[in-house]
Batch of 2 targets.
Target 1
Amino acid sequence: MLSRNLLVFLLLLFTFNEFPSLASAENTTFDFPYFTFWNFTLLGDSHLKNGVVGLTRELGVPSSSSGSLIYNNPIQFFDQESNITASFSTRFSFAINNVNPSSFGEGLTFFLSPDNQTIGSPEGYLGLVNSSDVDKNKFVAIEFDTKLSTQFNDPDENHVGLDINTLHSIKTADAMLQDIDFKSGNLITAWIDYKNDFRVLNVFLSYSTLKPQTPLLSVDIDLSVYLKQDMYVGFSASTDGSTEIHSIENWSFRTFGFLPVRPGSHPHNVSDSSVTIISDVPASNSTNKHHKRLGLGLGIAGPAFFFVVLVVFGYVSVKKWKDMKIEKCLKAEISTGPREFSYKELYAATRGFHSTRIIGRGAFGNVYKAFFVSSGTVGAVKRSKHSHEGKSEFLAELSIIAGLRHKNLVQLQGWCAEKGELLLVYEFMPNGSLDKEEEMRKLLLVGLSCAHPDSAERPSIRRVLQILNNEAELIAVPRMKPTLTFSCSLKVEDIVSDDEDSRTTA
């Protein structure tokens, strides 16, 4: 059996290694609704707090600050084999706040650059280039400027501009043309689109998440000249003796336009909408051999793949059936407690879990203010980050929380476990804190686990400290208090007599 499996593996390996690859390059896509340390590099004064990246710090006047956020992996924008330059599109939300409105500047940028190590200077350099060698760093950047710098011929103190290898903008546009004030402190969403086939770059801005029909800035330009190598993408910002704070809340990015090309074919300036035409040339013997090898490989791999899929499907089905059975029992136990909400209802009540509805952030997720139109009530929805937790564990924990009643605890109103997410609905308290509620809940569950009748089930002191410091998951607490059972059997030979005829046990 082992030798047969080895033979199948070698045949597949030989077949697919011999078959030529048709794709010359891959497009890149990523989407981050919030930020972590895993995928990004923070330079200078940039910092991460509650999933939001601050590019500059709040420093006293006249101190200045600069920092940058860079995606760790370089992005391929040009494929040398096919001579194709990729198009790209990005969307991000940012806010510029100022503790002292009388002092402002300088602004932030979205950039593409082959350099991921330069810590840019503050003031008018926007954290993008070093003032000691402004020509060293090559880049393509969109600037969102909040100060008029005569050094770089800025038109005003509230504009968008396209910068290439220099901070003297190729073209600018006044953001007030679309009633956008960068220094308002409001959350602003930006869209930047470059289509290589049309050789045009467009920038859109809005206070909402709906993309406008008309771009604020449109530049006719061929960026393929500047995108001849892998580039890093990210953001930079700086202040100029002000208390301006630049924050990035979310970010999505994608490249597109790399098309499959025939081996040995190198079209010149193939655009996103081009179609590769294959002539009616008879296939060579070499091609026929490749096709035969591919057919042999698929013929062998097909039944094996079907068998594996069948086994996986059976395993998943059985596991899902068991989980549904457990879930049904647990739901029955809490049927008289909090209400089960639908995901659709909570999604509508929080406007799609919009960032403007966030009223708190904790170690276990964000808390959103929810308006329930049907009942005219207001609630607080906690959206757990630990969505990988199983429904059965979640419902078991919920059955404990549902039974809690205390004047200092926020009352649990309902719950939802759909679409891979776990959500709890609490009563809304304008001056309350669900973070404190979460801490009290955590302390209660830790206390219950430490009081387990079986000492082997009690957590160690180290584990307790890790849980309290949010470094470890909560211990699953049984829904019913466990009871210990003892078995004892004594034999006559286990009972002996001492010299004074007193009975003892061995």
Note: The chain has six helices and 25 strands.
Target 2
Amino acid sequence: MEQPPAPKSKLKKLSEDSLTKQPEEVFDVLEKLGEGSYGSVFKAIHKESGQVVAIKQVPVESDLQEIIKEISIMQQCDSPYVVKYYGSYFKNTDLWIVMEYCGAGSVSDIIRLRNKTAIFMIPTNPPPTFRKPELWSDDFTDFVKKCLVKNPEQRATATQLLQHPFIKNAKPVSILRDLITEAMEIKAKRHEEQQRELEEEEENSDEDELDSHTMVKTSVESVGTMRAT
């Protein structure tokens, strides 16, 4: 693709006059870069300055409060480390958010170049499953599966999950007290066995050392007697 010409001047903020026009009069849209959480992102050129910008087109029926919050934060941030915000347009049913263009790609592109991390794998990969599903009950497997549905609109609510057979058929909390008591008894018994084994090893070690001294002493006495004769 042909590279855009060098910018005539640096764009700092869209003028009031530019914001009253249709966005197509102010920008030449070049290509679609990708899709984000709220809409599509396009690469465009600001006609007046020749500067390359990114335009996020967000359907108005999206979470408007979150979008307004994002714009408000971007307006307040003035740092070389934060994407600059130039202005917004309403076009038909879409909100066009004009931002600084970052030519190095998205953060996800950088993460893909390195070892995959949990923060990248969670939203992009299928939900995890049990390594040995045969060890778990069908109710528990189904319960976990329902909890891990990524789309919040399709995911079961907390009220629905509380009605799941895995929860409804759960044994009373009192059973935990018995299990904890049993576990503590087993732990104490193992500790006693380990102490007993340790004591036996020390006793055997002392006996071996005593036998060794006795053998040496007998040998010396025998040699001395033979020489006397």
Note: Residues 115 and 190 are 43 Å apart (CA to CA).
